Amino acid sequence: MSAQRLALIFLTTRIARIVKVLWIVAIVASMSAISANAQSQSIKERVTSPAGPPRLPQLNTSAAEANRRPRSSLASTENLYLSGPLPGLPTSYKITLREFVEYLQNSNISLAAQRFNIPIAQAQLKAARTYPDPTFQSGYAGDVSDEKQVTNYSGQLSGTILLGGKIGARTAVASNTLAGSRAQLADFLRNLRAQAANTFIDGLTELLILQRESVALSRAQQLVEVNSELLQRRQVSEDDVLRARIAALEAENDLVGAVSTLHQTLANMSLLLGSQQRDGLLCPEGNLDIPQRTFKLDDLIAREVSTRTDVIAASTALETARAQYRLAQANRVPDLTIGGVYQHLTRVTSHIDPSPAWDSAGLTLSIPLPFSNLNDGNLQAAHYTQLQASVALQATKLQAQADVRIAYERYVLAVAAVKDFETEILHDADSVYKSRLFKLKEGQNSLVDVLNVHAAINQIYIDYYNALSEQAKALVALEGSAGIWDIDF
Hints:
489 residues; 12 helices
């Protein structure tokens, strides 16, 4: 290989590196100012008084003791500023999980629509107490034959008296419907809160992976520089330089993929809050290294029967079905209509049959003959609806117990998986890479060996972050299945 060709390769590599460094520095400088302004305004923009349903009481676990354990900084995003200089990730401010859930209870569009079921049910309860309106009738009957006969003026006031306890039965149905709407709203919030927590966990995980991919890209570019220098000293071949550049391109492609995945997650966070993306995306802040929690499976199963919102909703659905059956029975009782009649008859001036003017008053009672009760279709439908609701409640309880058991096993396994990753091992892995890189510079190691170590270390970190993510999601699933919410990152 000629010296001119070597000089050209070296000069091209140096120019490309200088241009990339200048590009990164310029973007970092411009985005740092934006990030600082956004952080100064974030406190003013945060909502601290959610208007959602009250939180469920906490379960007596060892969370307080576990939180005293020091948490690894490797799983924290508090000091990450990767979202600023990267294109396509304009963020407004950082947000914690607690703040995110508080925002959610105030601004989620689907939750706001679900809340309207409460005033609707309250209005239906008010309407159920309405009695039938009285009826007033008046009449006129005159002689059109010009025979000087009597003229009749009449008026009648009547009202229906509901028998069989219809008002009480309708009120009971409406009251249970209101209780069911509240339980369904609480269950909707439970599922929405779990969805939001999982999305928040995804955001933290992808931020950490993005940080790791950024480190991997820096190391891959460092390998290109080292091999270019070794090529200049004729200690490696062009194949080694080409292989290092390919590894750098792959690392850059992985970084772009991590940016794209993170952007989608941040967009989903904004969507959950009902905010427009043009207002800027939210950046999750927290530490995925959650202290291990201690739960008793029997306590969780006993708790979910009394506090889990879908079980409560199924129970109120059964009470509503029973009330509807009692209303169907009450509707089969005929109602009584009572009326008062007053008539005024004018004087008859006919010479054949004259009569004086006179007034009359009377009382009318009417009651329908309930032949329609021979058809008991409505009563049977209400009866089977009641049986259906009872079976549905049993199925909901069984499903809730199964959810608790599955979530408990998932959490136990996730905690065991995280324990396999010790932070010392991760730090030692970085030391191993630095040692291999040093040996490569001294000509005591091959590029393939360094690349293998580089890929293995990068995969270890990503597996560690995914294990932390699974542990956090398993905790969310376990507490959600048992009707608990005391999670914070």
